[in-house]
Amino acid sequence: MNTLKRIGVLTSGGDAPGMNAAIRSVVRTALYNNIRVTGIMRGYQGLVDGEFRDMDTSSVANIIQRGGTILKTARSEDFRTAAGMEKAANNLRQSGIDALVVIGGDGTFRGAAEFLTIYPEFRIVGIAGTIDNDLFGTDNTIGYDTALNTVVEAVDKIRDTANSHDRLFFIEVMGRDAGFLALRSGIAVGAEEVLIPETETSIDEIIDKIETGRRNNKTSGIIMVAEGDESGGAFAVAEKVKKRLPHYDTRVTVLGHIQRGGAPSCLDRVLASQYGFHAVNTLIAGRSSVMVGIVKREVVETPFAQAVKHHNKVRSDLLEMVRILSI
Ligand code: F6P
């Protein structure tokens, strides 16, 4: 039997396209089950400050197609402190909120797990929302697919100009600790090389690749660089390569926050709707401290501690494939 009276929903950390679709799904699934919903503004900061608003079915009308998050988001320093958490717990009690759905990335789940160890009276379920796709326990995080499509669209355009000018481009994409965005988009744009934090970058190999390309009549090149690559990012790699190949016309593009915006793709809207639906049902079933995800089409629940500990392995066979297909 459902014992929940009111749940809170918040988005935290970097925004991701599809977060609104997840909020809509959480709100409507809860209301359908006669559970009231409070929207918490600006992630954990709103929890500390008591910035709450009542949500009804119309609060989430017409948002499934919108990027960003109507609840806004933040990376809260206050919530990391004992005093901040105490304020948050008191605000929840005062508003009669028994449980939370938190939508965000690893920092969001770390915060939730810590809060629950101090205040186990509450229940919290997480939804993976980050363009980085760097969480264990789900094949896709919300926003990853949209960001990939944004990157591909941008790099296709860069390829046109790279080709016209016979230039070598180093393109930096987001991904502080993970190379998923760089690798998958790199495959889709036919990149010559993909540099990611999970593997060691060899300038010798890059040079070799570029020179082989030239011998095979390639006149332009695209090197995708994840921002977290240990080489220091696109500018740093470009400089090292330029020193060794001064006659090459090189340029650097940092795609930046354009990757986080825009209307969510169909895949992200569907995924977000599924996650929201399952998150509320998980809470109703009495479970807590887990992230809901989908692995090989099956809904799975992963304890927060495990979801943030490490992310899925980057497939080295795909990296190898990039190199073979771009000879
Ligand atoms: O975690 C998502 C992410 O987009 C990372 O890829 C990136 O490093 C970071 O957020 C940027 O965060 P901010 O917008 O706070 O600078």
Structural features, described:
It is a single chain. This protein is of the alpha/beta class. It has 2 domains: 184 residues, Rossmann fold; 117 residues, Phosphofructokinase domain (Rossmann fold), CATH 3.40.50. 42% of the residues lie in helices and 18% in strands. The protein has 11 helices and 11 strands. A 7-stranded mixed sheet has the order 3-2-1-4-5-10-11, sandwiched between helices. A 4-stranded parallel sheet has the order 7-8-6-9, sandwiched between helices. Helix 1 packs parallel to helix 9, helix 5 packs across helix 6 and helix 6 packs parallel to helix 11. The protein is elongated. The model has no long low-confidence stretch (mean pLDDT 96). Bound molecules: 6-O-phosphono-beta-D-fructofuranose. The site of 6-O-phosphono-beta-D-fructofuranose (F6P) has 10 residues, from loops.
The largest beta-sheet arranges its strands as 3-2-1-4-5-10-11
Main beta sheet = 7 strands, mixed
- What shape does the CA trace take? elongated
Query: Helical amount among residues, as a percent range?
Result: 40-55%
Number of helices: 11
Question: Rg, please?
Answer: 22 Å
Weakly predicted, low-confidence segments? none
What would CATH call the class of the largest domain?
Answer: Alpha Beta
Kindly report the average pLDDT value. 96
In N-to-C order, the SSE pattern is EHEHEHEHEHEHEHEHEHEEHH
Q: What fraction of the residues are assigned to beta strands by DSSP?
A: 15-25%
Ligand kinds: 6-O-phosphono-beta-D-fructofuranose
Distance between the termini: 61 Å
- What class do helices, strands and sheet pairing give? alpha/beta
Here the CATH topology of the largest domain equals Rossmann fold
CATH architectural category of the largest domain: 3-Layer(aba) Sandwich
Number of domains: 2
The total count of strands amounts to 11
